[in-house]
Specification:
8 helices; 5-stranded parallel sheet; 35% helix; TIM Barrel; single chain; 3-stranded mixed sheet; alpha/beta; globular
Length: 239
């Protein structure tokens, strides 16, 4: 299913209540787990919205539903905060889609405060630097889970899949499908098999081409991610 969160020329606004979120989310996963059974992996993206102790509470409340991971539970600028989360929950933690280098994730990995590192080829210095991060992570049994949203082009996905086939401590590859139009502009031979597996391309390079003539027909169109406002006072909050 195609999903593009950047949905408007100017940011759309959503309401946010941490209290309601913390109460609702466990109920949501209880219903989903009952519907899909024990063998389906469930993942949850918190979008940096919680304080460390709130994230700890959420992780603890989600333990009965055995999540594959809880992503970005709190802003990662303060990496010490993840110690507090780790002390209170065994729900696996994933972070790193906005990290730029091995130094951004060194302490989180070495202190075993995360279970999945989500750095990407395009944000974290290319394949060579991403390999450095993965090698460090492998020493601490941290697996990869590279970001794969639609703000990263098919070129990045092609490179990511080649990286994934090499990395010994592979965990999972995120996939948000691009629009059919984007796929036409970036013809590629990697593919999703419909059974949970991605297959990297076998053409030269990363298996992704760029149709520049077709791309020229579609000028830049501005699109922003939404913003959240706190329900109680209207203050801006992490989306």
């Amino acid at each position: 299913m195609f999903y593009e969160p950047a949905d408007a020329d100017l940011p759309s606004e959503h309401d946010w209540s941490t209290e309601k979120y913390l109460n609702h989310t466990p109920q949501l996963f209880d219903a989903v787990r009952q519907a899909v059974g024990p063998d389906t992996h469930l993942l949850h993206d918190v979008h940096h919205r919680l304080t460390p102790i709130e994230a700890a509470r959420l992780g603890k409340s989600l333990e009965p539903y055995k999540l594959f991971w809880m992503e970005d539970p709190t802003p990662a600028e303060n990496q010490e905060a993840f110690k507090l989360i780790r002390q209170h929950t065994t729900t696996p933690i994933a972070v790193g889609e906005i990290f730029n280098s091995i130094w951004d994730c060194k302490d989180l990995i070495q202190n075993q405060l995360i279970d999945y590192i989500r750095t990407t080829v395009v944000h974290a210095g290319g394949i060579t630097h991403l390999r450095r991060i993965a090698d460090l992570a492998s020493l601490y049994q941290v697996r990869t889970g590279s970001h794969g949203a639609t703000d990263l082009s098919p070129v990045c996905m092609g490179a990511a899949l080649h990286f994934d086939t090499w990395v010994p401590n592979f965990g999972v590859q995120e996939l948000m499908p691009h629009t059919p139009l984007a796929d036409e502009v970036f013809p590629h031979d990697y593919h999703y098999d419909g059974k949970g597996l991605m297959h990297c391309g076998e053409k030269p390079g990363h298996g992704v081409e760029i149709d520049e003539a077709l791309a020229a027909k579609y000028p830049y169109k501005r699109a922003y991610l939404p913003v959240n406002r706190q329900q109680h006072d209207g203050a801006l909050w992490n989306w």
